[in-house]
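ARCHIVE CARD
Drawer: 12
Card no.: 0347
Subject: one protein chain, sequence and derived structure
Cross-reference: see card 0346
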Amino acid sequence: MTETTATETTATVASGFSVVTADRICRITITKPKRLNAIDYDAMVGLGDAFAAAGADPSVRAVVLTGEGNAFCTGADLSGVAAAAARGITPEMTMDAANRLTKSIVDCPVPVIARINGPAAGIGVALALAADLTYASRDSYLLLAFINIGLMPDGGAAALVAAAAGRPLANELALLGGRLPAADAVAANLITAALPDDELDARVDAAATKLANGPRRAQELTKRALNRATLTALDGALADEHAGQVELLASADFAEGAMAMLQKRPAKFAD
C-alpha cells in the first residue's frame, strides 16, 4: 500500500518492512519486532528493492535503516526455513538475495545511515556495517552468530568487519561467535558512535537532515570514492560466502544448529 500526502510524504508497507520518504529522507524500518526483526527471503528481496528505489529517486538525499522495537536485525528468520523450502526457495536463492541486499546498501548512490537500536546479529551485522554512518544505542551489540549454528558469515560481513577493524577482530567475532558491545565496536572503528538511548534519534536525525540539505552529486561521488578505497575485498568475500554458505545450509551441522537455537539448547555438532 502506498500513500502520498500534500506534504510530499510517501509511505509503503511491505512484507516485513516499511518505507517512509519525507523531506528528502527515506526511512526504511524492519517491522518484525516479535521476531527481533529477523528477516526472511521475501524481506531480503523487498529491502534490496527498497534501497534500489531510494537510490533511483532524485528527490532522496539520505536513507535511514533501522528496526522496529528493541532490535535492529537479528539475522535470518530460522523459523521460516521449512516454509521457504516448501515454496521452492533454494539456498542459492537465499544467498543471492542476501548478497544483493548488502550491495544495494553499498551501491546506493546516496549515503545510508544505520540506526542500531538493539542487537545486530547475523546478516544484521552486514547491514549495519554496509551503511556509511552507523549510530548505535549504548546497550546494543554486534553478534556474528553464524558459527554457533554451523554456518559462516554472509552478506559480506567477513570483508566489512575486516575492512574497518582488521583481521584479528574479524577472526575473533567470526570464529568464536561472541557479542561485541557498541562501545567496543566504536573503539574498533566498526561503527560511528554509541549513544545513550535518549540521544540516538537526535544524532541520527541531525546527520540525515544535514545530508538531506547537501549536494547529492558531491555526496554520491564522495561515497563512491570512499567505498572503492576501503571495500576492495567485498565482491570476493560475497562470492566466497555465497559458495560456502550454500554448502553449509545443506549440512547436518546447520540442521542441528538451527534446531538447537529454536529449542534453546546447546548444539551438538558432528565429530
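Annotation on reverse: The two ends are 50 Å apart (CA to CA). DSSP finds eleven helices and eleven strands in the chain.
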